[in-house]
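Ticket #4471: structure export looks truncated?
Reporter: QA, pipeline team
Priority: medium

Steps to reproduce: submit the single chain below to the structure queue and open the exported record.
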Amino acid sequence: MHNLYDVAYLILCALMSIVGCHKYLSVFCFPTPIQYEIVEVTTLFEIYQAFDMFALGEVREPTEEDFDHFQKFATEKEGWTIFFSRKKPDQEIITSTKCSDFSHINQKFFMLVYSKLLNVPAASIYDCLHDAQYRKTWDYAMKEGIRIAYVSPNSEIGYYHLKCPLGIRDRDFVTQRCWSIKDKIFVIINHSIFHKKVRPKNGVVRAASYLTGYLIECTGPNSCKFTYVSQSDPKGNIPMFAVNTAAKLMAPKIMKRLLDAARRYNTWKKLNNPDFMPWRNFEQLKQFPLVESDDLSDKSDFTEDYIDQDLILDKKEFHSKKKNM
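Actual output as written to the record:
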């Protein structure tokens, strides 16, 4: 239902590391009780070539090769660089950033998170990321999440409206979302598409997900490895203050929120429509309309050159955003 549900909040917090025409590549690792390892970042051009998968705007049924390509890239550990780390008595946070001067991929952002998670089954993380109803209880940044149509038994078109911090215009995404479960390995991937019936809203910046995904690998009955990858572009023009906020403060808190939510998911689900899981049950997914080719477009609807500053918010909107934070 939501596209990056997955994450969208996590994505955008990281996306705020983009300033002007620069691109920042980041790796986040998170505090205990999450255990983690670090991998490194290559240039965006190399990343773009690495994915032999969906093109931007392409809508089709996913193949096994799509998921295999993503898994291979997400587990590759060569070529990454760490730039920042901080240790405290109760936590350790490591952040990597890198600027790129490739003009043809201006303002596109790549991030990778790799964590070892304890006391939470892989399936709980997977279902937590899928369940739009549950997400409303823990993802405070999700303003709206809609399942628009389905593409195949393991793919859908969705809309996600992300509520951004004060001074930053809200972002939204329209994506094709695909998923797979194979040999105790769970994969969710998405990329932006263009839908004629879901046009950009006034005052909301239409952002781009070139490829965003999760790889969740079961390591035991109550533990897993979690990898999150995103090459995205928030569009607009993100001001400098957002860099430190996202990279140093927000990402660890958001990751911990996801972990806590996953640990509570099974208890919550037993009391809230326990049999409704359209990401696991195709008959339930078919309750939604099948995507129509006439509704799809090959013309980009991304918001370009939009200025994100407090000065562009009128007084009424400014106080409205502040009240809702």
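Status: closed, not a bug. The export was complete when the record was re-opened. Leaving a note from the reviewer for reference: Residues 48 and 231 are 8 Å apart (CA to CA).
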